[in-house]
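Lay summary. Proteins are chains of building blocks that fold into shapes, and those shapes determine what they do. In this project we predict the shape from the chain. Here is one chain we studied, written as its sequence of building blocks.
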Amino acid sequence: MNNRVYEFRVLSKLSQRELAKQVGVSKQTILVMEKGNYLPSLLLAFRIANFFQVNIEEIFEYVEEGATSYEND
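And here is the predicted shape, written in a compact code that computers can read:
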């Protein structure tokens, strides 16, 4: 799964700690999610999308193994 959490967070001028507090997780969770080392639960993914007031698909995208999708953005 690809995500754009880092991009949305930076554009919103939030620290990892601030975003974590807003969505009810630890700063470490945001850190590893941004690095692509953590797949959030569906509930957390919706919390993040709701926080940024966008559809979940704008931040999270399922990609088949070996494929990437955000390359051309």
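What the prediction tells us: The chain has a mean pLDDT of 91.
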